[in-house]
Queue: 2 jobs
Job 1
Amino acid sequence: MTPSPTGLFITLEGIDGSGKSTQAQLLAEGLRAMGYDVVRTREPGGSPGAEEIRSLVLEGPPDRWSPESELLLFTAARRDHLEKTIRPALAQGKVVICDRFADSTRIYQGITRADLRNTVDALHDLMIGQEPDLTYVIDIAPEQGLARAQGRQAGEQRFEDFGLAMQAKMRAGFLALACEFSQRCHVIEGNRPPSQVAAELLNIARPHLSRLRPLAPIDPAKSPARLTPPPPHPHRSHGPPLRRKPKPSLGKPPSKPPSFPHVPTA
Ligand code: ADP
Ligand code: TYD
């Protein structure tokens, strides 16, 4: 594993519809409310160039690309995302929360679409070479994930069109991957209210946050000890304090999936 140079690199993985995007948003809101500088991003995408590749790989019929071409496209998108978004943010000591990363390629292109895991690993070592510090694998029954994902009615159905059998294969793949990378992976039961899942994610993240310094207290009235601004982060000598945001409401599932900006939320 390559530890992030200064920031904290968190990824969310799991089958389609498992709740990754919902939890990425709640985690980002939770950490921002604690004063951390968070960049929420996603794959494929997360930089203007990678977002263009996203349309190429996610739209069209399932047989649009061979598994090999697809692997090259996802890797090209990831390389651009890493160069333009992830590494600069980590170098500034930020928390990067990424909805899917290389583990998705290990599963989708590595075992589900074809038996390409060795090629996936070789290409990853050659072109990416970055692993997350912390990965949540959100686990959910394939039927439930598919039903949730299809309820979204987005235009990006190419992978969801692969069907239930493939969702089941991917779920097993993600669980095996969590064992393979057990140091950084945490399997999370996704069939619970979003607020419960979010609370568990935040608890797991806490020990990793100790090496980062929040930019501003959540609420000075409630945190008198933190009224004095913390000393500057050793790796961050610039930048205004975060605007304080209200705590996220974790009570009920969002009525619609969180929208995602073309480029990451800073
Ligand atoms: P993913 O990013 O893994 O595909 P999403 O976060 O987009 O999953 O969630 C898919 C759908 O399921 C969305 O409509 C979302 O509102 C809903 N959803 C997410 N988490 C939960 C949950 N814990 N319980 C019920 N519905 C959920
Ligand atoms: P997206 O809508 O972002 O995922 P989800 O349905 O989980 O919210 O779609 C991304 C799709 O791309 C998803 O089906 C998984 C697939 N994918 C790969 O096949 N390989 C990859 O490397 C990545 C990052 C995603």
Job 2
Amino acid sequence: MSATVDLKRMVREQLLGGGIRSRKVLGAFLRVDRALFVPPEARRRAYHDGPLSIGLGQTISQPLMVAEMVEALGLRRGQKLLEVGAGSGYVLALAAAMGATVYGIERIEELAASIPARFDLIGIPRPSLRIGDGSLGWPDASPFDRIIVSAACPEPPPALIEQLSDGGVLVVPAGGRHLQRLYRIQKRGGTTITAVSTPCVFVPLIGKNGFAED
Ligand code: SAM
């Protein structure tokens, strides 16, 4: 399916205009239509430059924020990626469109239930999905080349760093409940290299290595 005029405008104005340079990332955003990942009542605002409600108190993140996180992953075809906080499946679909084998964990079953059909509509291989506390990772399926956390943690969860392959990269918003910074952590020969960048605001990761439920 070719990208609509509105989707192309989103990519050009928000992502290219916002400094995203990776052709692979920009191409994935053109292939994976954000409109498929928002509820019908939000579809007319699907290309809005901000987060949108996906129901049950959760959100699909701002396109530029997602693009910055995916670009920071440095994802390559054939790599194995885990997303913690899969929500609507949008980030997982972008990673699958870039040729990754994708695994997702989501706490709310009702949200995860709609993900496989969305992948079918786009024509990309379905993800492996698990319902539960993703702050503990997915030990049985580890190691992962890339891990992305799409909800806020008090600190980068040690269990996720543990489950990275050598050379693997974790991208995670960490800090306070209401304001975080984006961490990029690369594992190399038993040590980690950490870079901290953009301030950001995510819904909390609720779980053992996350925040307590309100
Ligand atoms: N990446 C998603 C997308 O593209 O639609 C949006 C993610 S939304 C900002 C954060 C998600 O994290 C919510 O769907 C929420 O239910 C989920 N979540 C919160 N705590 C979690 C946990 N411990 N394990 C797994 N998912 C969790």
